[in-house]
Design a protein that fits this description.
Elements lengths: L1 H13 L17 H15 L5 H6 L3 H11 L5
Helix pairs in contact: 1-2, 1-4
Amino acid sequence: MIADRVRAIWCRELGQDGISDDDDFFALGGQSLIMVNIQGAFLDELGAEVPMDQMFRNSTVASISAYIESQGAVAP
């Protein structure tokens, strides 16, 4: 499931465990430099290119996962 992979990336990059699908990236302490790292991880680990504007608009695991799935390019 893509949400599990996205959550694992967020946990690693934010240095937190137990992030839920509805936790907001910015409320968790996320900022632009971490977002760039996550963007790179999405490309490297999922094969998904996520534009920065989508990262800002989709600030939860659930919403960014839905966006990535809608793009149809997720590495196994």
